[in-house]
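Annex B. Sample input.
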Amino acid sequence: MDVAIAVASWAVVLLGLSVAVDAFAVRRVIIGCLASSRDDPSVELARQIADGIEDPQIQVKGIYKEFNNSFDEVLSAFEFLTSENISAVVGPFQETYEVITESLKIPYLATTWVPLKTQSLQIVQIYPDAETFEAAVVDVVNYYSWSQVTVIYDSKEGSHVIEQLLHRRTIDVNGHKVSAVDSQEGAMQLKETLIQIRDRGRLEIVVVCSPSTTHTIIKQGLYLGLLSTRNKWLIVNMGTEEANLTDFVDSNANVTILSVNRDEEHNSSICHLGFSQSILHDAIHVYAAMTRNVQNKTVTVHGCTGALQVIPGGTRGNQFLQLYTLDGLRGKAKGTWTSGANDVKTRIDFNRTYSDRTRTSHAEFGRRTLIVTTKIEKPYVQWKRGFGNSTNDSTDHLEGYCIDILRELAYRFGFKYSIYLVPDGKFGSLKDDGWTGMIRELKDKETDIAMAPFSVTPERSQVVDFTKPFQIKGTSTIVKIPERHVSVFQFLAPLSKVVWVSIFISFLAASFVLFAISRINSDRKPKTLDNFRECFWYIWAALLRGGTSGVPNATSSRTLSSAWWFFSLIVVAIYTANLAAFLTLTNVNIPINSAADLASQNIYDYGTVDGSQIEYFFKHTKISAYEKMYAHMSVLSPESMVRRVEHGLERVRKEKYAFLWDSPTLRYMIQSRCDLLEIGSPFDLKGYGWAVQKDAPYKDALSLGLLRLNDEGYLQKFEKRWWGRSGCPDMKQTASTKELEFKNVAGIFLVLAGGVILSALLCVANFIIYKRKEAVKSRKKVSEENAWPLKSENNSSKWYPDSSYS
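Annex B, continued. Sample output.
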């Protein structure tokens, strides 16, 4: 029986473990899809899209209710989402679900335009926002150099476009709002508006309307002769439905259409159905990526509408819109507009599709997976939290600045890659037995790309090729911040010793002069400063802003007092203004101000990584100070060289050691290690690049990709992500933001204690002197009293004769 129970118990445990592992291996989520009715095909389409995603497994539940934002309806929707365990909502934007998802803290993937006033942090904008369309319209108007623009609109989006155009002082903007064009009255109003535009000679027209209204406007314009070649039209489609303009293809009208972008080379058949279907496809795939990458704040998905890089806050990153003329409806090439460039001519390209602008031909990279080698060099390449110490395939275990760049380039060029760490952990240098590190891996054709912050040297360039630089670097020096010493008499620091002595001499001189003037002045009033002690205390009290028992009466004395008061006022003001800063200032004695100063001191040992580019610089430089430094590192103290950057940083923190290395790496280290200090400014400025095999066919493509990332601001964004914040307090922090410790003000307590002790000693001395004087007086009085009877006897013998003589 016991054996059976034990077996059953183990079976239950194993079953539980299998279920737990199964649940952990495959995530299961439930999303709600908003639909106008049960006949709406979007729910079934969402299920079809979800079925094509393996991880996570997504179950789609339709939400068919209509809401009027009443309290009961909002409560009903809230209860439905919680009871069905909905983890996300996807569908058209509704204020009801904006409130509910914000309350439940679940994502709301909006597949339509989201109002600008929306502040919810749970909304993920899949559809391009109004600001994107507005910026694109302004760019197209500037691209064509239009000067007199008429905007026809039927919604708030059109008024926003007018507002943006009005900011351009060189553009004359005129707006016309239309409504209900399908009615007879609305059609007549539209016709009158178009006639008015034609009669005024307004040739440049922007239409921001629904698809049906846009079709009616173009049809009316055709009848009124507004589709001639001299008229220029810009049709802005901000909705998920396309305007049917195929009837006007043969009109030779000068029409440009701006709409949501679609990647026509995407392998999903859903992407070719329509705008709304493409947006829904991208929304579900974005949520799947968010579920898989919980730790990543930024999610990137290659969707039907292009690259969706959803950044924190729920907005899309770099965005693309589609630009084409009526010829584009015949199957001819369509152009693109992108938000990621610096000038209009770069943002707009009518000759290249989205695929052409974001991906080049696969012939340069081939169809195989590229092998990429690297080394741990924070923040360029580092382990993700929870991973480390592996030299095998580390593709999914690494993060960093270079990883972000590689991921973006792989997406743009369409290649796959696998990353491994170089076994010896070195960049690569030429030794007696050949090359080391990643350079050797490339030379032996073990890898395709060496992804690391490489400094380009002539020796390396002979055996490998380098891409264009992706970052500018210099060589910096770091040391450990010495222990800070706080002087007990720190409050004396605002003024130098010479100034303190000068103030004391001035105090004595002013006291003496005031005493002399008071003694010889002709003032007949009672004198209060007729002795040196009173003059001394008067001048001292005026300097310390204390009260005095009397004031001078003579004009000459008051003139001297006024001069002393002014002198005291300036001295106290200067002292007070600098006191706060000096109380918070601690003395850090570092005998070097730059890397060159290391050559002329003997306190710090110094060095760099053996075989690195920095050693190469010191070895071949002609600068005398650096030549002396290299002699020290290579001959006098060869043990000052280290094998790795980590070893150099460890020596800096444990010894009197100055480490020379690349400034970006050291700057990143200083951000998290507050006991390190960079000395001077970087020197030997150069560019960082990646290394590839000699004559690799993809070198130029990688270089071009890096240049484009720089022009589009991606490199700056990645750099800000990894170097943007420091966890250390600001060394230049003002005194008003730092509290004073007792050691900063201990001196004033010592002065007070000294004053108390001195006054006590003086009090005792005065008491003793007083007692001695009293004793002297007492003895004198006693002696006088004892002498009085003798005087009396003498006097009585003198004035009263003896009786015998009577």
